Amino acid sequence: xxxxxxxxxxxxxDLGGGGAERLHVNLANDWAxxxxxxxxxxxxxxxxxxxxxxxxIAVTDLGVDRIRGAILxxxxxxxxxxxxxVLAAMWPLTSAVVFSWLFSGRPGKxxxxxxxxxxxxxxxxxxxxxGYLKNLIRFTYPLANGIVAVxxxxxxxxxxxxxxxxxxxxxxxxxxxxxxxxxxxSPGVREQLWGTGFQRHILAVGRLAPQKDxxxxxxxxxxxxxxxxxxxxILGEGPLRxxxxxxxxxxxxxxCISLPGFIRDPYPWFRxxxxxxxxxxxxxxxxVIVEALECGxxxxxxxxxxxxxxxxxDGRYGKLVPIxxxxxxxxxxxxxxxxxxxxxxxxxxxxxxSVRNISDQYLNYCFPADN
Length: 371
Known about the structure:
By secondary structure, the protein is of the alpha/beta class. The protein is built from 15 helices and 13 strands.
């Protein structure tokens, strides 16, 4: 694809370590490498992923804490910068950006993207009243030039919430396969990360929050046969740390379960793991599943809404179990650890979600006449 001399503005709350933030960093770096002008406009210029941006990518700090406070400063900035494409993610910021875009005179095309099942993550968690969420989406989203959902499940949920026609929303999966080396780590690195005395190494990665349901994973781990001699490591930080540690202590698993916190580069952990487990009650996509597949690591995942079954093709590339079922998860983990796995098959599946492949899909959507 030839270089396109276009300017893209990406609008996010910040560049914390979440999946939506990481995918935009991956896309922005690829677009900058192709010669596009890329700028992040953040409510607050903060977050672990700032350091991963290519040096030629501009970052503008609106200096606001509340979404409603960003509307007018953002409108003024868009009026001045005049980008050809504006990408906004993460409701309710997406709806606020629609107002900013209108107030600024509609510079360029506006694309909104959602990265989680809004019904489950907002209405289901009492984070937004159903009427407020539905009406705001119904009023604002149709005004955008395009809408992206990161999985079919997210698309279907969004269309029901916003009474949107299916052809108004395009599914573009996350660019979670970044081209990292899949070569297994040396025994020395594995020992440094995991310690000694364990034959099997099980990994989970994600925020320590109710959505990820690590309580079920810990209970499932406790049900594994002792002969497996496994260690479980959960990478991530969040509000449930104390509760999860209390559960680990209650089950007497302090020696074989570790919670090291947020790790900026989790790939050495993936490359030294024997199994990756996702225990979420819901997802938008499931970046970490792709990251595991790219490293050739077998996967056990809950069959939650939405994303995991799409990535794993309904069980072809990994095992799917019901949510909140420790017994089913333990059985799947035990079976997966006992089976041989075709690492090349897993890595081949991950390539579908490569940065370059997904980057092309975004560019074709934003600038169809140029591609």
